[in-house]
Structures are given as structure tokens and as C-alpha cells.
Structure prediction request, 409 residues.
Amino acid sequence: MASAHQAPLAAAVSDFLVIGAGVIGLNLALEARRRFPDASVTLIEKERDCGEHASGRNSGVLHAGFYYTANSLKARLTRDGNRRMARFCDEQGLGINRCGKLVVAKNADELPVLDELMSRAQANGVELHKISAKEAAEIEPRVRTHEYALFSPTTASVDPRQVMAAFVANARREGIVIRTNTRYLGHSNGVVKTTQGDISAGYVINSAGLYADKIANGYGFSQHYRILPFKGLYLYANDKAQGLRTNIYPVPDLRNPFLGVHHTVTLDGRAKIGPTAIPCFWREHYRGLENFSAREFLEVVGREAQLFIRNDFGFRKLAWEEMQKAYRPRIVELAGELINDARAEQYTKWGAPGIRAQLLDVRTRKLEMDFVMEGDDKSFHILNAVSPAFTCATSFSEYVFDQISRLTH
Prediction:
């Protein structure tokens, strides 16, 4: 019989410890294994499975990379990530719907933005075609656009959960230890404390999504950044709705990171409209009082109230417009500006909500448009890896390890 005064078990040991098993965390773990084949790699995840948050709830669109300014990380990593993720799906035998994307203008005022997107595509080396309204209708007969549109042939759709399952299987095959139901609690003297025991970590990589700023703060980072959560909802077409041949997006507001209500064609050919970008009241505010935290409520709503009062980055208008999109007739009305014959009775089922872990710079009171990360020779923190992080997870992970190599040598 064991003694009542038995010493606690020694901490597990891992050369690399990755916190958060979303698509970024999994690819960071895989990249650690590729670069350091003899190193031990552990991935911890507070949920019972990997990809339970943004990675498993996203649109499934593989973006091409033409939205972003040429000097941004998003531009380069998305362009490369699109090709690599498509190749990964082919190699793994995963489904991919190469349906492309049309970006359309509602009126003449939006045409200069189409021209700007075309310029960005050329600067970024992304294939994009400026086509007439007649040519757009040949791609999708129901599309509505003013004078001309843009067509992206490399935009595609996948099943995010199918892709995540493949990454998990690859990680386990590579000998990466994945510990689910394991919540990060803190760290001290190189030892990470979790709900399933301590782990002595040689190097810590934080890819915790909605809680990345909290964990980073404990390491002395994210001093000027906080996560501001936004809820994304998709509304699915029913059997009464006529199918679409391609994704159809509106001209975006280039001042914020959201792309507006659009039509997405899923892997299996179903159509859905959305997403919303509704400000949440706490970090995992999916439904009702689910995952409610009084502390988070006070923190998040307090920050949103400040943004609302000051109307930073047009937050007041953004919040009002996004909240209206949770009303089914309103989101269908917006989607109907992009195609002919879109009616509320054709769209009846809401999909599972997702939450975007959007980073806010509290000094400038602006939403971060590009990827943001900070680190040193002991830890590295992925603070802003929102869309299109799913598309560029592989290329992004390589970039992160280039930065880690620079910091540790």
C-alpha cells in the first residue's frame, strides 16, 4: 500500500510544449518535430478533443491571399498556405471543392475597391482575374455585380473537421504527445502547471486562441494587447434553395478585418450565408449563458463599452450592424444583394457558432489586421492568428519557427 505521505510525482518533461490544439497548435507541434526530430514534443488542449473552437468551426474556405497589403505577413503566408493546404488535402485523400470565388460590387462606388484588390493580388503574386458582369454570370448565373467582378480560381472549400482529424493523426504518428482535457494553469521556473500535472518544458509555444493574451501576459508579453471576441454565425440553405457554383463575396471594408456577409459553397456543395461578427460578452460566449464568466463579462463588456462611447474604428456602427445580422430576414437580405432570388424561406438552419479571437491594441484602440506574435528565448506567443490562419497554418508555422530560431541563437 502506498504511503499517505508519498512524494508527488515528478513533472513530465518535454523539450517543446505547445498550448492549444487548434490548427495552428497542431502545425507548430508538427514543425517542431520536423526541425528537431530527436526532441520531445507535447501538445496540451483544455477541451476533450482538438479543434473544438475556431479551427473546427470556421468556414472551411481556403483563401487565395489577395485581400491583404503586399507587405503583410498575411499576404505572403496565405498565398503559400493556399497551395500547400490544397496539396495536403490531395495527398491525404481529403475532399476539396475547387469552386473558386467571385468578389462583386453593388454599385459604382465599390469599383475602386475591386481595383485595389486587383492591385494587391498582382503585388502578392496571387492569381486573380478582372471579368465583366457577363463573364461573372457565366461562372454563376445568379450573381449580381455592377459592371465587373473579380474571380479567384484558387479559392477552395474543405471540411475543417476532416482536415483537423488528418493533422491530429499525423501528429500522433510522428510521436507527438497530445494531452486533451488538460488546462493550462500557470508556470513557475520552467515548469508549466496543468490540471493533469506539471510539465517541465524546455520551450513553450502559446497558441491558445481566445486565451492567448492571458497566457502571454503571465510570461511578460501582450502588455498592450487584449483579445476581443466576435461571434460568427452561418445560415444554411435548405432543399428549397437553388445551389451555387462558386463562393460569392461582397467588396470588403478594408478598414476592418471582417469580409462581410457572403455566400459560401461547402465541400459537399451546400450553400450557406454569413458570417456575422457580433461582439461577444465573454470569451467563449457561444450560446445563452454557456461558459459564462463574471470576470470575463466585466472585462470584455467594459472594453466594448469604452470602444462604443469613443466610437473607435467605427465600433458603434459595426456593433449595431452585426447584431442585426442575427435576425434571419436581415442576413438573407444582405446576402440577396449579391445574387438573384435569395429568400428567407430558403435559409432556415443556423450552423454552430464560432468565435473569432480578434486582437485589440489597447494603446491605439484599433483591431490588429495582421498576424501578431511576441517571444524570447524561453517562450513564444501567437497573439493574433485569425482568418486566414486555417489556410496558412503550415506556412505560418514555418515562419514562427524561423522567429524562434532567431530568438534562441
About this structure: The two ends are 49 Å apart (CA to CA). Residues 1-8 have pLDDT under 50 and may be disordered.
